[in-house]
Amino acid sequence: MKSDIPKIHPEFEFRRIFEEYKRQVYTQVYAIAKSQYAAEEITQEIFIKIWQNRELLSSVKNLDGYIYTIVRNYSLNYLRKAASDLRLVNHLIQVAVPGYNDTESSVQLSEYKKLIHTAVSKLSPQRRRVYELNKDNDLSYDDIASQLNLSKHTVKNHLLSALASIRGYLTQNGIDPTIILILVFVRAIVC
Q1: What whole-number distance in Å separates Cα of residue 56 and Cα of residue 33?
Q2: CATH of domain 2-81
Q3: Which residues contact 45 (CB under 8 A, 6 or more apart)?
Q4: pLDDT in tens, 16-68
Q5: Do the beta carbons of residue 184 and residue 115 sit within 8 Å?
Q6: What is the mean pLDDT of the chain?
Q7: End-to-end distance of the chain based on CA atoms, in angstroms?
Q8: Which CATH architecture has domain 101-190?
Q9: From residue 128, how far is each of 131, 160, 166, 168, 181 by CA, in Å?
Q10: pTM (2 decimals)?
Q11: Burial degree of 34 (CB within 10 A; 0-12, 13-18, 19+)
C-alpha cells in the first residue's frame, strides 16, 4: 500500500521530483542566465510552477523533457525581460542624460564583436567551421552534419565546445558573456 503513496498524494510526488531535480534545474538555469541570483530565482519559480500543477505530474510521460521545457522557457523569458529592461535603461539614459547618443553603445558592441571574432579565430578549424555554419549561415545541426559528413551528435559537441571556449575567452578579457548576449538581442530587436 505504501508504494502507492506517490500516485495517490501529488505532494509526495512533488517532493520526490524536487529532491531529484533541484540541482539539475539550478545548473541548467545558471548555464543560460549566467547569474547565481537569477538561477536561484528562476529555479524557485520553476518549482512553484510545478507545485501549482502537481496534479498533472502523474500524467507526464517524459518528466525529463517536461522539466527541461519549463527550464528553457523560464530562462529565455528571463533573458527577454533582461533585454527589455536594458532597452528601458538605454531609453531613460537618452532622455535623462544631456548629450547622450547611441554611439557609445555602438562602439562597445563593435568591440564585443571583435572580441568574439578573436575568440572564434582561436578555435580549432573543425570547431570554427561548425560554429560559423551554425551562427553565420544559420544552418541546423542536421544540415551541418550532412555538409561536413559528421554525426549530429558530433556537431552538437563541437558547437557546445566552441561556445564554451568563446565564453571562457570573453570572461578572461573581463567581459560578462551574458551582457553581450543581451546587447546583441536588444540590437536585433531595435534595428
Answers
A1: 28
A2: 1.10.1740.10
A3: 74
A4: 888 889 999 999 988 887 778 788 888 998 998 888 887 787 788 888 888 88
A5: no
A6: 76
A7: 62
A8: Orthogonal Bundle (1.10)
A9: 5, 11, 11, 15, 19
A10: 0.45
A11: middle
Q: How many CA atoms lie within 13 A of 90 on its CB side?
A: 17
Q: Residue 174: left if φ>0, alpha if ψ -120 to 50, beta else—which one? A: left
Residue with cell 558530433: 154
Kindly report each contact of residues 55-62 with a partner whose C-beta sits within 8 Å and lies 24 or more positions away, as own/partner: 55/10, 57/10, 57/13, 57/14, 57/17, 58/7, 58/10, 58/13
Which one has a higher pLDDT value, 132 or 184? 132
The radius of gyration of the chain's CA atoms, rounded to the nearest angstrom, is: 21
What is the rounded distance in angstroms from the CA atom of residue 165 to the CA atom of residue 121? 11
- Cell of residue 110, nine digits: 563593435
Compute the average pLDDT of residues 165-170. Answer: 83
Instruction: Report which residue type is found at 120.
Output: V
- The domain limits of the chain are 2-81, 101-190
